[in-house]
Amino acid sequence: MAPLLEIRDVSMHFGGLAALTDVSFGIEPGERLALIGPNGAGKTTLFNVLTGQLHPSAGEVLFRGHDITHASVFSRTHLGMARSFQITSLFPHQSVKVNALIALQGTKKGRYNLVSYLMKDKHMQAEAQRLLESHGLWDLREATVSSLAYGLQRKLEIALSLASDPELLLLDEPSCGLTTTESAEITALIKDLGSKITVLMIAHDMDLVFGVAERVMLLHYGRIACEGTCDEIRSNQMVRDIYMGTRHAAPGHEATDDRDR
C-alpha cells in the first residue's frame, strides 16, 4: 500500500541553524503515528513544513503521491489535510456554534461571509449541527468558548479540525494542559475517529501516545533517532536516556534547544 503522506529527505535551516536534517518517513492510510522528542527537537518545525506554513530548505513532501512541497496551507486543506494547534486557535469571545460556522466557512471556496450571513445560511447551520452533534457538543452551542473548561475547548478544536472531512489529521500536543481525566477523554476521541482518518500527532503525554499510536518515532536534534511499536519504544534505552536527560547533546548542537516549543 502506498503511503498517504511521505516525507523524503526534508531539511530545514534558519540561517546557520539546522532545525531538521534529512528527515524521511511515510504514514499509511488509517495509521496512528506519534512523534515524540524533547523540547527543541524540531517537532513543530516539521509540522509547519507538513502543513505548508514553512517550505523546506531541501527535500520533498508528498500527499497521495502528489508533490505538495510548495503548496499553500489552503490547498493542502482542500487536498485532505487538517491540523489542530498546541495552543487553541478558537475565537474565545464567540459561541461554540459560531466557531463551528467559521470553521466550516474556512473549508469553502469563494468569498468570506460575515457571521451574520452564516447565521442565516440554513445549509451551513445544518452542517454545524451535524459537526457538533457528532462530538457531543451540540448542547453547548450557545456557550461562549471562553466559558468552557479547557478540556472542552481542546475537544472543540479537534472537532472543528474535522470540518473539512480530512484524510489526514495532524494533532499538535492534543492533551497539553489537560487533567488526567480530560486527557483520557481526548485519547478516547482520537481512538474513535475511525480508520478513514489517518492521524499524525506530536505528544509529550506518553499515556496518550501508548493509548493511541500504532507506531512511534523519536525526533532528536532534527533527525529521526529511532522508531517502533509502543512496546519497542517503551523498552528502548535511547528513548529512556533522552527523556531522563542523561543523553548529552551531540557536538555542534548545544545552541539548538529553542527550535520549537
Number of helical segments with 4 or more residues: 10
> Helix- and strand-based class?
alpha/beta
- Distance separating the two termini: 34 Å
Q: Which sequence of SSEs, written as H and E, runs from N to C?
A: EEEHEEHEHHHHEHEHEEHH
Kindly state the percentage of residues in helix. Answer: 25-40%
Describe this structure in words.
Strand 1 and strand 2 form a beta hairpin. Mean pLDDT is 86; it is low at 246-261. This protein has helices spanning 43-51, 73-79, 96-105, 115-118, 122-133, 150-161, 180-191, 206-212, 230-234, 237-244, and strands at 5-14, 17-27, 32-36, 58-63, 66-67, 81-84, 168-172, 198-202, 215-220, 223-228. The longest helix is centred in the middle third of the chain and has 12 residues, at 122-133. With 261 residues, the chain is an alpha/beta fold. It has 10 helices and 10 strands. A 6-stranded mixed beta sheet has the order 6-7-8-3-9-10, sandwiched between helices. The chain has a 4-stranded antiparallel beta sheet with strand order 2-1-4-5, covered by helices on one side.
Offer a concise description of the structure:
The protein is an alpha/beta fold. The chain has 10 helices and 10 strands.
Sequence-ordered SSE layout with sheet pairings:
Blueprint: E1 5-14, E2 17-27, E3 32-36, H1 43-51, E4 58-63, E5 66-67, H2 73-79, E6 81-84, H3 96-105, H4 115-118, H5 122-133, H6 150-161, E7 168-172, H7 180-191, E8 198-202, H8 206-212, E9 215-220, E10 223-228, H9 230-234, H10 237-244
Parallel strand pairs: 3-8, 3-9, 6-7, 7-8
Antiparallel strand pairs: 1-2, 1-4, 4-5, 9-10
Helix pairs in contact: 3-5, 6-7
